[in-house]
Amino acid sequence: MLGPWLHDWRRPQGRRCSFWATQLMAEALATLLRPRYLDLLVSSPALPLPVGSCSPEPEPLERFGRRFPLAPGRCLEEYGAFYVGGSEASTDLDLDPDLSRLLLGWAPGQPFFTCCPDTGQTQDEGVRAGRLRARRHYLVERARDARVVGLLAGTLGVARHREALSHLRNLAQAAGKRSYVLALGRPTPPKLANFPEMDVFVLLACPLGALAPQPSGGFFRPVLAPCELEAACNPAWPPSGLAPYLTHYADLLPGSPFHVPLPPPDSELWDTPDVSLITGELRPPPVWKPSNDPGCLALTLRPQLELAESSPAASFLSSRSWQGLQPRLGQTPVTGAVSGRRGIAIAYEDEGGS
């Protein structure tokens, strides 16, 4: 199975390779590949470690929901990848989430090959990885055009999830967007279709569930990862192609080496002209002030005392032709109960025969 791949893919510089498989298969493949590749990594899923467990070995690098036993001085961006898994029936539009995370986060300049166990055929995933990155860049543009963001609390048991929700809400507020936190469990198209006021959704989940499977035409609104909302709302975030694709929301929080703080309100980054690549219109700069600014508490006189509608969700509701039942409390006269019609809808008893 590995013969064609070993013959075609030659790595003279450094001979570094990293691949994924099950534990038994990984050990067997590593035995075959170590004579050829001097620097070989075998990754494992980043499952929670037992409480109180300690190991004399250094802690491995955790990326993409996996652990990589990197040697001191090594960098993951220097390695090529070989993924064993998937199925012959998988298509480009419905990839396995595990493979999608790896294709998005792996260094674009390094080779990435996959092997299907059903057929034993290998495939270069460079083209498919480019299509996936283009799809995620489109979702970032949708997030920049959005006015209302729905934050899906997909996890309530992973560490620092409250801090991550607060961070995402601050991001949306800084970019001039309104955000709503929704706890719906597993996101499905029928559940998210109940909130048409939302322009985009952001799924806050563990690294193994950060990329929700989105079949073609499934969800009413796109579902993004926290990293994509960070790229859309934080003007200090590196541009596309230079920023890493992070699948764990903890990498965006303070204390992480990938954390990029928001620029101050008076920074010129907020006033940089931005044009939507979807609508072609110029996006206005967001207007926001920090909560400790005394100017945000000042009262100003208005010429007319009118009700000002500032909620996009309420504005959307008012534009509907049917807004729900009206109680009309105290306006309906009280009457006694009467007997209703009896029978089926096609022939009630008081209608007679026809």
Automatic annotation (TrEMBL):
Pfam families: Diphthamide_syn (PF01866). Pathway: Protein modification; peptidyl-diphthamide biosynthesis. Its cofactor is [4Fe-4S] cluster. NCBIfam families: diphth2_R. It comes from the Eukaryota. One of its GO terms (molecular function) is iron-sulfur cluster binding. The keyword Flavoprotein does not apply. Keywords: Iron, Iron-sulfur, Metal-binding. Gene3D superfamilies: Diphthamide synthesis DPH1/DPH2 domain 3 (3.40.50.11860). Belongs to the DPH1/DPH2 family. DPH2 subfamily. This is 2-(3-amino-3-carboxypropyl)histidine synthase subunit 2 isoform X4. InterPro entries: DPH1/DPH2, DPH1/DPH2_3. One of its GO terms (biological process) is protein histidyl modification to diphthamide.
